[in-house]
Amino acid sequence: MKLFNTIFALSVTLALISGCTSDPKNTTNENAQPQKKIEKTEAAQPDWKSSIKDIAKSAQSKTEKADAVELLAKKFNPSADQLKQFQTHIIEDFQSRKYLKDANNSEYMLSNLFQSVVVEHQADESQAMKKYAYDFYQNTKYVYRGAETATSDSVKSNEKQMTKALNGN
Fold this sequence. Notes:
Layout: H1 2-21, H2 45-57, H3 62-75, H4 80-95, H5 106-122, H6 128-145, H7 153-166
Helix pairs in contact: 2-3, 2-5, 3-5, 4-5, 5-6, 6-7
């Protein structure tokens, strides 16, 4: 009987330990509600915007700021609405020719850099938007850092490619 009690106590102990350490995803509970996937919403926007503001105000060089924003953008997982807003923004800023007008406005330029990297990173290889966003990013980055001017040949060449991408060519 003593052996039976010991085995029984050991079994109960193992069952309790197993229950405490098991993966809750693998348990079945008929009354449990399925967990909803939490998506990033518009409420997430201030986070990236405040990060851009902080980077823009920092004492880093323009190159370091651009690099920091690029890393931030590559880690960012936008909602579908945010992605659409970013696409619309970078298209409208290019078409209005506003996007390179104020290269000394770090917050504005870094925001454009961020949005173009997010769009380019999220776009499918076959989408013209990927190519467009990459050229927008290049122009923004090089003009902001002072490596190019808004009227340089390489910027104009990228702008021709951007126009082609928008026109579906």
